[in-house]
Design goal:
The protein is about 45% helix and about 10% strand. With about 450 residues, it is an alpha/beta fold. α9 crosses α11 and α16 crosses α18. The radius of gyration is 31 Å and the shape is elongated. Bound molecules: glutamic acid. Glutamic acid binds next to α6.
């Protein structure tokens, strides 16, 4: 089995695209299939190399490793072959209308209340007219002659889908400079690169009806892959698209969103499963089932993602984050430090602040100098570990009669100069005896 994710490198990936990528990747891994990353870059005016690089970077960051890579601009000769074949079959015809002429036709149809379907005027254009146009320097674009018949397929998400051939315009497959359009290039690639499953957004449903006819013409019925069309992802403000902007993966990464938070959310949104924090892609693969995806639009909520990020961080093991903590400058960071802070941060880089508090000098906040001095004098000796705290606090309670907030808040402020944070029990051994004592005595340490 072979799956593919086929972005057009005309912009950065947003959460809608990455959801399609992730679902394909999970599906491929679950089936033990292959996953192809394909750049749909036949539109050379809008495609840019910087987007190709950014797409790869985003995919790597998310852990969506591809087994093979291809780009449509490398396969132009295959598309030209398909063009010749379609012409020979009588299924591709030249059209000379300019964009403005087509716009006028469309407007007139709409004003009559008719669907804006191309009227196939080019099919009856006399040869003399064609010659005249060409003499004027007008090059034709090429349209596919759709058959007037019903196309249907069993969609893995939408169930049986049916389209009448005469309800759609004959699509343009080649522009006047003979560059292929996406709709042709995708058919040629899907068939020639042996794609067995096409999973994409429901905005492609009508393309599928067209592409099935083209696949049959060019490669025979056996070449038709299994299709699944994902319901669109929406936010409170509407649809997510390159045009609208925002929600791009790079931005989320910069905001400190964990790849697993994004994968947890996007693999389950719009399915019958609850959205939970997952920390391992293998588990997501195990729990994946394309039949769990529903037809209703999926609602994406940025606040839910932030909450999920917090939950993911709280579950990550030290080994999963060690290299990243070191890259943040936390030299010598260890597992006990991570365990103490991981449920108190909303982004990984917040850990650096707690590292500073444990390891670098700080000016303590002393609200009751007498009590703090008492606490300092009761600090236990010997090796410190998580049990040190209990022994110390018990002694302090007995000595001062304080409890609850009155007991803990002055200590927290003295030791960390903050009103809240990770459990002091865990922080105390990380701060160490020398610093703890000085801070309790009101000295910067
Ligand atoms: N390049 C197309 C897009 O980004 C791919 C659609 C498809 O998966 O066939 O919408």
């Amino acid at each position: 089995m072979k799956f593919r994710f086929a972005p057009s490198p005309t912009g950065y990936l947003h959460i809608g695209n990455i959801r399609t990528a992730l679902v394909n990747w999970l599906y491929a891994r679950q089936m033990g299939g292959q996953f192809l990353l394909r750049m749909d870059d036949t539109d050379d005016e809008r495609s840019e190399e910087k987007y190709v690089d950014a797409i790869k970077e985003d995919m790597r960051w998310l852990g969506l490793v591809w087994d093979s890579f291809s780009r449509q601009s490398d396969r132009l000769s295959a598309y030209e072959e398909a063009r010749q074949k379609l012409i020979a079959m009588g299924r591709l015809y030249p059209c000379y209308e300019s964009k403005e002429e087509l716009d006028i036709k469309r407007k007139m149809q709409l004003s009559r209340g008719a669907p804006p379907i191309y009227d196939r005027a080019a099919l009856t254009l006399p040869d003399a007219e064609k010659k005249k146009y060409e003499a004027e320097g007008r090059q034709p674009h090429w349209r596919y002659l759709l058959q007037d018949r019903i196309v249907s397929w069993d969609d893995e998400i939408r169930g049986k889908v049916t389209f009448a051939g005469n309800s759609m315009s004959d699509p343009v497959l080649f522009r006047s400079d003979l560059r292929p359009t996406y709709i042709l290039a995708s058919v040629v690639d899907d068939a020639e690169l042996n794609i067995t499953h096409v999973v994409r957004g429901e905005d492609h449903v009508s393309n599928t009806a067209i592409q099935i006819q083209m696949l049959e013409d060019l490669y025979g019925e056996k070449s038709i892959p299994t299709f699944a069309h994902l319901a669109l992802l929406k936010t409170k403000d509407g649809e997510i698209s390159k045009r609208v902007g925002g929600h791009d993966v790079q931005g989320l990464r910069e905001d400190g969103i964990e790849p697993m938070a994004l994968c947890s959310m996007l693999s389950k949104i719009g399915t019958s499963d609850a959205i939970e924090a997952w920390t391992d892609m293998h588990d997501l693969v195990q729990s994946f089932d394309i039949r769990k995806f529903g037809r209703a639009p999926a609602h994406y909520d940025a606040e839910e993602l932030t909450a999920l990020n917090h939950k993911v961080l709280a579950q990550l093991s030290f080994e999963q984050v060690r290299a990243r903590l070191e890259a943040l400058g936390l030299a010598g960071v260890d597992a006990p430090f991570w365990w103490s802070v991981r449920s108190n941060i909303t982004q990984l880089r917040d850990a650096a602040e707690w590292w500073e508090i444990c390891k670098r000098p700080l000016s303590p906040v002393i609200t009751d100098a007498g009590f703090a001095a008492e606490a300092a004098s009761l600090l236990p000796g010997g090796e410190w570990d998580e049990r040190t705290w209990d022994a110390w606090i018990d002694a302090l309670k007995q000595k001062t009669g304080k409890k609850g907030k009155d007991l803990f808040m002055p200590i927290r402020r003295a030791l960390t100069a903050r009103d809240s944070g990770p459990e002091l029990k865990m922080m105390l051994p990380l701060i160490g005896r020398e610093k703890a004592e000085k801070r309790l005595r009101g000295e910067a340490a």
